[in-house]
Write a structure and sequence with these properties.
The structure is a homodimer. Chain A has helices spanning 3-15, 25-37, 69-80, 84-91, 118-131, 148-160, 174-190, 196-203, 206-220, 230-242, 261-268, 284-302, 306-309, and strands at residues 47-53, 95-100, 138-144, 225-227, 250-252. The first copy, chain A, is an alpha/beta fold. Chain A has a five-stranded parallel β-sheet, sandwiched between helices. In chain A, helix 5 (118-131) packs across helix 9, helix 6 (148-160) runs antiparallel to helix 8 (196-203) and helix 8 packs antiparallel against helix 10 (230-242). The longest helix of chain A has 19 residues, at 284-302. The first copy, chain A, is elongated. The two termini of chain A are 32 Å apart.
Chain lengths: 314, 314
Amino acid sequence: PDATARDGASDRNGQLTKPPGALGRLEDLAIWYAGWRGEARPRITAPQVLVFAGNHGVTARGVSAFPAEVTVQMVANFKAGGAAINQLSDFAGAKMAVHALDLDRPTADFTQGPAMSEAEVCAAFATGWTAVDAEADLLVTGEMGIGNTTSAAAIAAALLGGTGWAGRGTGVDDAGLARKEAVVAEGLAANPDRSGLGVLAALGGREVAAMAGAIAGARAHRIPVILDGFICTAAALCLFAEDKTALDHCVAGHLSAEGAHQRMLNALGLDPLLSLGLRLGEGSGAALAIQVLKGAVACHSGMATFAEAGVAAG
Amino acid sequence: PDATARDGASDRNGQLTKPPGALGRLEDLAIWYAGWRGEARPRITAPQVLVFAGNHGVTARGVSAFPAEVTVQMVANFKAGGAAINQLSDFAGAKMAVHALDLDRPTADFTQGPAMSEAEVCAAFATGWTAVDAEADLLVTGEMGIGNTTSAAAIAAALLGGTGWAGRGTGVDDAGLARKEAVVAEGLAANPDRSGLGVLAALGGREVAAMAGAIAGARAHRIPVILDGFICTAAALCLFAEDKTALDHCVAGHLSAEGAHQRMLNALGLDPLLSLGLRLGEGSGAALAIQVLKGAVACHSGMATFAEAGVAAG
């Protein structure tokens, strides 16, 4: 981030017609955004929403309430404009693009070895990296992939330790939840590499790797990122495991209802902007959170100062 | 609310291309909004933001970090477009109007008797009621009034009992906080009426009564209301004390950083949409929460059903 722009934004914030700190987190958000964009009085006019889709070999283990065909069906729904993320992207004034990654070639079942080869994970990561529009001023990454809450749970378990990372996903019953937990344990046993990118390849999926690539690519363009829920945060966690500053350009858009999301956010030191019980993925919670960040920046850049307005500063 | 529209919205919600319940609270919000508007597939196109301003005799007791002149200065700032609520109203596509209520004639110091006479409170209530645009499809009420966190704390103490309702407001120090607590206790001792409207007159202010009038008036037009923070919720509490169903057309927009707001929301059974540490008033938190409700309705009314999209329903 640009220290001059950040300091300029902080100075401006102190002069705006409100009691100090009265806009709470909106003030911090605006200053953070200003720093990354290198402008003390920025605007958000070009958000981008990237949705990546992938299929998971681990679905053969009965870890989802939906059949794997739903991934490709939902990609068609994204392209036709019928999904939640289409509505929320439009509402946020964001350009949305969908990238389906080799849907007819699912990743390998990670209980038998790595989900992806090094070449496969690199290709998916590069797809995400290059999908970022250098002219965007904000990025949301979302996903679709039947089975990917199991993948995300396995990533968290491998990088953060402990158990209980599996959750209900799209709505599995108790038996399904037990299968997910068992599959996660088997995946960890079958894949000993505990580096961030090693775990991404072994336990992730193509859409997870693409999100990690997009998050990293956005940073190269100084584009702030709003993270979505459980799967997106797991992708971000792989970057964090490699470099503790890798997510400094990110905020957590929302707290997912997927049970272990809070634990994952705690590990990353991230405090979500929204907590509305969403557990859809697609980037939906983060796309809604664009509105919070836009509101923060609108106040910061649009408000009058005490001097401009002739208001006593208390 | 219209049970047919609500049931139609609930039925539609069950057919949308997402796992059941995956949009969490957004689903409940859309169905609630549909019921109040009498349309199973509504849109939000005409939000209204009403900001009421009033002056408080109790400021003579040193309860605010800002001088009372700031009320009229901030009204000028609202009219010039320089305040936070201007930016957030514009961002929400809302029509904003400011009503300054007899600023040169503060209410009486409520530690000496009622803040307002019956005629005064009725006039302020009517100002709020008639300010509501019958063509609006959503209402936010906000306020400005140096000293009004003390008034709101006194209302809460009178109607809900207990102590500790006073908070930091715009930023008083420990001595100021102690003065606020003492003033609240004196106000309760001086004004024995514990009916909702009696408390509104005795311990409220003109802007507080106007907000109560606007909230009640919106209901007559079946216009849903997003409540703002501590002061607005205190106004709503006076209605609730008269009729436990009086706020069924309202949601809580946000949790204020003003300490006792959570207790007040708990008493009303309201769960805030946002929790971002705002404590500005003006309607700012509720205006930002318009975006959440708009997002909920955009998903509900814009998404494809499983049948339309050819997606397997799991």
